[in-house]
Design goal:
alpha+beta, 22% helix, 13 strands, binds calcium ion
């Protein structure tokens, strides 16, 4: 009798552990829609360094989102837009790009995901810093005098121009951006992260194969984003139009959205993406995942150009790089969120 009771007890215990493992450990992150390698990468980055909340702030019963849907996971969270799965040709399609935009290659983004409708704002970043005490850092490279100069007195709170909640946050480095995405993941119970570089170009192109998401004409740039326009002093300025913002970034959403409903992919601020810098696309991933396996990953990719950029820097295919720990008033970031199927 005693032996059979022991067997029964062990059986119940094993079933209990199985249920706990199935429902307890896996329900707070949405991982089902990502490629397998991306899932492994994201699971490790999202769970590193911070405790899993006992009760996620947002409900476990998530509605299903379809392409074009917009949502916000909490009042302080960024507004998100759902992007459809699809394929595109990445790189210099128009023949006016740099060597680092080659070779052109096909990328298949085989999953739908959500992207910030805007660059992350000052108000959204404030909520993160107020909640976590995240460091302001020690200085920022600013363009107040029309040339980039390190200024130890400047940071995201005071970059040298007035910032309000609806402006895009500046003077944040790659590490700050990543910490913000991880905090948002733990706050909401959803998987937020930086975009991969290929996801970024996929959204910037929004189905186009032209120089910009809206076509080839520099004349129309001022409708879609803030750059060095004809009111600017920079010699590389776009003399075709005036976008109304000469000396600083524009509040997010000031310009027309692209075909996916996303704003400021061209200009306003350069945007940090997750990938390590590689000087060519030889060997680049073709499934939308982040390209990260490089011994020295201190340099990260920036995309889209900024309020001091000329037209060439705003091209969909254009790439730039910066040291991950550096902050400047021409770079911010945008986030992505994985969706369950
Ligand atoms: Ca401008
Ligand atoms: Ca931008
Ligand atoms: Ca470039």
């Amino acid at each position: 009798m005693g032996n059979s009771k022991g067997v029964m007890f062990r059986g119940i215990l094993l079933i209990g552990i199985w249920f706990a493992a199935l429902f307890g450990a896996t329900t707070w992150l949405d991982l089902s829609a990502t490629p397998r390698d991306l899932i492994v990468e994201l699971r490790s980055s999202a769970t590193k360094g911070a405790p899993v909340p006992a009760t996620p702030a947002v409900g476990m019963n998530q509605r299903r989102y379809g392409p074009g849907d917009e949502f916000q996971d909490c009042p302080d969270c960024p507004e998100m837009v759902v992007i459809p799965a699809g394929s595109f040709r990445m790189g210099d399609l128009t023949g006016e790009g740099d060597e680092d935009e080659k070779p052109v290659h096909v990328v298949r983004v085989g999953y739908s995901f959500a992207i910030g409708k805007y660059e992350v704002t000052y108000g959204e970043y404030s909520a993160f810093v107020n909640s976590t005490g995240h460091s302001d850092g020690s200085g920022c490279r600013v363009w107040a005098n029309d040339k980039g100069e390190e200024d130890n007195s400047k940071n995201w709170r005071d970059p040298g121009f007035i910032q309000s909640d609806g402006d895009p946050v500046v003077c944040v480095n790659w590490n700050d951006a990543t910490a913000y995405a991880q905090w948002l993941s733990h706050k909401t119970g959803r998987l937020y992260r930086l975009l991969s570089e290929s996801e970024w170009e996929y959204v910037a192109r929004a189905g186009s194969q032209t120089k910009y998401g809206f076509g080839n004409g520099d004349t129309f740039l001022c409708r879609y984003g803030n750059l060095a326009d004809k009111s600017s002093k920079y010699k590389w300025r776009n003399n075709n139009c005036d976008d109304g913002y000469a000396r600083h970034p524009a509040p997010v959403g000031s310009f027309t959205a692209n075909q996916f409903g996303v704003h400021d992919m061209h200009g306003n601020l350069w945007e940090w993406v997750a990938d390590c810098w590689h000087a060519s696309y030889s060997g680049a991933p073709s499934n939308g995942s982040t390209w990260k396996y490089r011994r020295n990953c201190s340099k990260r990719v920036l995309r889209g150009g900024s309020w001091i950029s000329g037209p060439g820097d705003l091209r969909s295919a254009n790439r730039d790089l910066a040291i991950a720990g550096k902050r400047s008033d021409i770079a911010g970031f945008r986030i992505a969120r994985m969706l369950s199927q």
